[in-house]
Write a structure and sequence with these properties.
10 strands; DNA-binding; 275 residues; elongated; 4-stranded antiparallel sheet; alpha+beta
DNA sequence: CGTGCTGTTGCTAG
DNA sequence: ACTAGCAACAGCAC
């Protein structure tokens, strides 16, 4: 379930587990299968003997920085998982890419649907990385100010749900947290973005931040041992208030939750308390 | 056996 | 500016 909180949680876990490790080798297991884009062939030679310096995140991209001046970039797509295993681990179905460290630990990228991507870039040029240049504000940064949000919504006639999911505006809000934050703000996902009044804009911004932070907090506390091969490696059980609850009772007013499609994606909302 | 959905992103056509 | 549709895919519910 990789939205921003899941990716952040994975980054935090990796930071605790693999910082300062030295790469022994990097390789793609499934050379006959592509992820969303082909993995560059040169990746296999580029990280040998590199020391892992730091891990950061931009939008839903995991960025792993090494002392050789390169940054490994991982995006989980819809089904990507990052596993940490020992050297006796037997590769299984949908394992695609491996980063082996010289202490026997290995990081494995597993992705059933193969919508994810693995790439690398020179660390010093990372802000100009072509997948980052058109990204909007990080929702948990100061850049996502009330003024910024107001400006984004101004004059936009598209449904508010699409506006908050558009990475050119704000990054990291996927289909689930879009529905959840609109529910918490009592705003219908169908409303035109420009129709929100000042109070609603402020409420929605507050709820986006609050819900993402809460999910990160839960993620940090609910994963036990990241190295266990039976775990789902960074994903955790959520309890959503509106997402996926079609025809069930609204937890606030007991009306029935409705499911509609917007831009091909499911939206869930309560017709009674979201206006 | 289908059929229709699913957490992403980015592109194209209208 | 905005929308719909599509493309990449495996897995699962029905």
């Amino acid at each position: 379930m990789p939205e921003l909180p899941e990716v952040e949680t994975i980054c935090n876990r990796l930071r605790n587990q693999i910082l300062n490790k030295i790469v022994k080798e990097a390789f793609q297991i499934t050379k006959h299968l592509n992820l969303r884009y082909p993995i560059s062939k040169s990746i296999e030679d580029s990280f040998t003997n590199a020391k892992l310096l730091s891990i950061s995140r931009r939008s839903k991209y995991i960025i792993i920085n090494f002392d050789n001046g390169l940054s490994l970039i991982i995006h989980l797509g819809m089904s990507g998982k990052v596993l940490l295993e020992g050297d006796n681990y037997v590769y299984k179905k949908h394992d695609h890419f491996v980063l082996k460290f010289n202490d026997g630990v290995q990081l494995i990228y597993n992705d059933a649907r193969r919508f994810g991507l693995i790439d690398y870039v020179q660390t010093q040029h990372i802000t100009n990385y072509h997948r980052f240049t058109n990204l909007g504000a990080e929702p948990l940064s100061a850049e996502f100010s009330l003024a910024y949000f107001h400006k984004i919504l101004l004059n936009k006639k598209q449904p508010i749900k699409l506006t908050i999911m558009d990475n050119q505006n704000i990054v990291g809000i996927g289909n689930i947290y879009a529905s959840e934050s609109l529910f918490a703000s009592k705003i219908s996902p169908l409303r035109a973005a420009c129709s929100l009044n000042d109070d609603e804009v402020e409420m929605l911004r507050d709820k986006i931040i609050e819900i993402l932070k809460e999910a990160i907090k839960q993620g940090g506390s609910s994963i036990k041992d990241y190295r266990n091969s039976d775990g789902e490696a960074g994903y955790f059980q959520h309890y959503f208030k509106v997402y996926g609850r079609e025809k069930k009772e609204c937890i606030v007013c007991e009306d029935k939750i409705i499911k509609v499609k917007q831009a091909g994606r499911a939206s869930f909302y309560c017709p009674a308390c979201q206006n």
